[in-house]
Amino acid sequence: MSKMKTKKSVAKRFSLTGTGKVKYKKMNLRHILTKRSSKRKMHLREAGILSEDSARRIRKQMLPYG
Predict the structure, then answer these.
(1) Per-residue model confidence as pLDDT tens digits over 6-45
(2) Which of 25, 41, 46, 63 is deepest in the core (most CB within 10 A)?
């Protein structure tokens, strides 16, 4: 049986923490930032953690060796 391949587009968007949670960068922090409040931009800088049912799918299908 051949090796399972990692989806490279997913590998660039998500990473795994030491405990196996799936971490991602939040959206809406690329351009047109003048209309967003400083508080909102500050919270968007933090990494997000996926919910467990979504994380299970990402780990199993997209990042098999992650």
Answers:
(1) 999 999 999 999 999 999 999 999 999 999 999 999 999 9
(2) 63
